[in-house]
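Morning!

As promised:
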Amino acid sequence: MRHNDKVNNSAVGLDVGTSRVCLAQRVGDEFQYETQLNAFVTIPFSKMTESVLKKEKVPHTVAGSDIVVHGNESDRFADVLNIETRRTMDKGVLNPAEPEGLGMLRKIVESMVDPVKDRQKLCFTVPAAPLGAEDNLTYHEATLRRILTELGYEVKSVNEGLAVIYSELESSNYTGIGISCGGGLCNVCVAYLSVPVFSFSIPKAGDYIDTSAAAVTGERANRVRIVKEDSFHFNGFFADKLQQVLGVYYDEMIQSLVQGMKQAFSNSRNLPKSSRPLPIVLSGGTALPEGFRDRFAKALSETDLPIASNEIRIADDPLHASAKGALVAALADI
Amino acid sequence: MRLIPRILVERRAATIRDPVERLRYLQSSVVPRERTIYGRTHKLPWLGLALLLLCVLIPRYKESSVKASLPVKTAAHIAPAAAEIDQPDTIPNVWLVDQTRDFETYSNGLRIDDRYVKPNEKRIFYPVYRSGAIDAGQPEWRSEPAGIVYHTTESDQARFTADQNARLKRIAKAVIGVVQQNHSYHFLIDRFGQVFRIVPETDVANHAGYSVWANGNSIYVNLNSSFLGIAFETQTQLGDQASANPAQVHAARILTEMLRAKYRIPQTNCVTHAQVSVNPDNMLIGYHTDWAGNFPFHDIGLSDNYALAPPSIYAFGFGYDPTFVHATGVRLWQGLALAEDQMQTQAAARGMPMSRYRAVLQKTYKEVLAALKAVGAATDKSS
């Protein structure tokens, strides 16, 4: 890998999320991560700007009279220029409304993953089909597969919820429910002894909260996201309107998630015939606010699910759980 | 029959500490039986026995612990200005009350006319150097406005009486046209104290040209990017004679309050063009002399920054000539004397004669200027 020459380069895990792309690799017994915002902004070209970006090693591309800044720094530039970041993905898949999306996603991935010559294993996450909707993931998955294959990797994909299980539910022999609350989607997967039983996604997640709160408060969605990630928490008194509005939409998202689980479990013929209750792990950036776990547990307890749970917890490392799970899957596949 | 191998598989898996090895084991043990485990009928009953044998035969796995660690790499960091600027004394509390397409009003009574705003080049980066450790090639890059430079338009002045209203308005409109065309300032305050936004604060205005200022450890060179420009529609009056009328002073006060509140600008970074302007050709300060000696700092709610030593002298070895001294008032002389004292102390501390130390400082400035030119950040655009 580009950033650490002590890395065990036998396999790579890549969580390609709507909001962030996270790379996981193993160094000895430790997992290490690198994350980039899956977004970009276009700024006017100037020699000075280009020079500074190069000097500061900010990932960017010169495109005619513009400079495209992608990855983590795009957030700050959007803030400085008072514009929204542009997103390569929407609701878990390539953004059909963004003409530059594919090219920029390739750039972001290339800035994190070096080309290899030895068919190194790489496992990347893919979302599950939305609940009650047609599976439209083929193009997204095939495109990512092509990008990564062209970089020289032997590529496999893993369901995002299953990746959470691979990352977090080792203690229950990878039996349980993994939920990844990301930017575009909430992905849910039920697995039994590492085998996925069923999975689904719901389209209400972090972006839904941001855009809904932005519409109500008149703030930019990007700004709402920053406030949400910096300071939002449940179970408190909110002095300002934005925090209150965030709480409202968070609750709506949790309700949708729980109702989605109820519907999916009720319709599934593949539920394990086990009397044991299952552990549930919540991960992803949208699960980060303090009190999220309790809010989710309360909503779940008020819903009659066909599966009992014995534990509901937040992942040890919610932002990296999917990437770690993808890496575990890649390593196990060797 | 079906449950026995599952229990054994689970027991065996539980002894494997390495998550990858455990997953690998489970995959190899369970995946072939996937349909049997989750299916409703025993379609492959023989697999149960095979699995049982497999579990017994598989050797013990080495135990190893796996810890997750934080990311090793952090993205390139460019410090934002607001967090790094030295703490100001008291930042006013002013907020936006209303905003329409043409006007903004603020809680302190400020009203900004946006009808003449004309975007210019975006302010994306500007360099900041560390006092005492100037590295021409390695400045810190910031984005948010760090200060304010006050200017005079030096435009025609009609008599300020009621019977001259039409002429006053006509001149003001002409001035707005000129400064708008040249992106001369961010704000213009006309004779009636009306505040016009000319260039958005997110953009660069061509107001300061070659210039130097410092605050604490931060040295700013060529302030078009780093400082906001506010121009009074007025002409410089020599000595202590007021150049701005009360309406303009009031407007400047509330505009300054708003900008300081919005960008956390310390009052020592609110200075006049004469204080910051330099001429690299002759290495003298005061190339521009607007507000050289009679800027009403106190009336605008600021401390008298004329008393501050010009950093162009003590950091970069600039000098000044009798013309500048003549153009300035007594108040600015205090700052000049302070800068000279400071330079003498620094020279003595380094065991250098003043002339040699000044030459060293001037060389540093030229290196900074050359480095800025190399990245396209050094311009001589100014009003």
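The longest helix of chain A spans residues 241-267.

Hope this helps with the figure draft.
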